[in-house]
UniProtKB/TrEMBL annotation:
Annotated metabolic or biological route of this protein: Cofactor biosynthesis; thiamine diphosphate biosynthesis; 4-amino-2-methyl-5-diphosphomethylpyrimidine from 5-amino-1-(5-phospho-D-ribosyl)imidazole: step 3/3; Cofactor biosynthesis; thiamine diphosphate biosynthesis; 4-amino-2-methyl-5-diphosphomethylpyrimidine from 5-amino-1-(5-phospho-D-ribosyl)imidazole: step 2/3
Organism: Planococcus kocurii
Swiss-Prot/TrEMBL catalytic activity: 4-amino-2-methyl-5-(phosphooxymethyl)pyrimidine + ATP = 4-amino-2-methyl-5-(diphosphooxymethyl)pyrimidine + ADP; 4-amino-5-hydroxymethyl-2-methylpyrimidine + ATP = 4-amino-2-methyl-5-(phosphooxymethyl)pyrimidine + ADP + H(+)
Name under which the protein is recorded: Hydroxymethylpyrimidine/phosphomethylpyrimidine kinase
Family (UniProt): Belongs to the ThiD family.
Amino acid sequence: MTKTPQTLTIAGSDSGGGAGIQADLKTFQELDVYGTSVITAVTAQNTMGVSAIYPMSAQAVHMQLEAVASDFELTALKTGMLFNSEIIKEVATAIHKFDWKNVVVDPVMIAKGGADLLQQEAVDAVKTHLLPLALLVTPNIPEAEALTGIPITNVSSRQHAAEKILSLGAKSVVIKGGHAMDRDYAEDYFLQANGESFVYRSARISTKQTHGTGCTFAAAVTAELAKGQQLKDAIFTAKQFIQAALSEPLNIGQGHGPTNHAAYKARIVEKREAHKIEVFY
Ligand SMILES: Nc1ncnc2c1ncn2[C@@H]1O[C@H](COP(=O)(O)OP(=O)(O)O)[C@@H](O)[C@H]1O
Ligand SMILES: Cc1ncc(COP(=O)(O)O)c(N)n1
């Protein structure tokens, strides 16, 4: 009998349930993989913002990593909010030690409400310790700018930033386009070390219920990789997953509400022409 694919998310807890560990585990469940979790920080958070952050000690992160590593056969994992350089080093050490493959790094920096989910001092640690271990890095536009120092204003600066991220050691990158507000579509740019690139484009959905889109997208890629999908197909599924999750809002909370993780399985994207994903080479 084939075993259920097993995945890991190393991320922060969102008490509001829309982002972080909670979004990741819901996404794993919806995509039929088993999810384990290592919590790096507890946030007091809801759809209106983050009111407090309690980072775990490096030792607490270490013990969680050892516990999951000693029991599960992890075929893919993702990192989200890591908060400080001590935690980043602990995570990088474990990825080396356990020889984990299919590592998706979502370089979470700032919450939609403006709270710092990564301390300023830790940006260098992400670049030095984590990017070289990544099969895929999934920055949004502000994160790609922070990692590269390149302002992303057009297609050519986006490509330049992606190339610079690969030069830091990542095997591939997808720069997500949710923050490019001047467009009527949401476009993600994927570049691999062999120079191959793809653009994934969908209609932009007009909604403020976007809390946790980045976490959900990276978790969906991770789930598909755990099942043995190729990276470019895993990204396609993730884009479909987020398109479905954004287009059937739950209308929960008073601020930036959570996306609807259950919408993809309901096959909503396949039913509606407007939710098609186009892929360009
Ligand atoms: N309004 C929107 N309509 C359709 N897709 C969106 C929208 N906003 C974000 N996305 C998609 O959600 C995913 C996360 O993107 P983004 O919002 O840039 O990341 P983050 O949540 O990390 O800031 C990407 O696949 C992006 O294309
Ligand atoms: C614990 C945690 N991790 C990640 C995010 C980013 O999610 P978003 O960019 O959608 O606010 C968040 N708000 N909270």
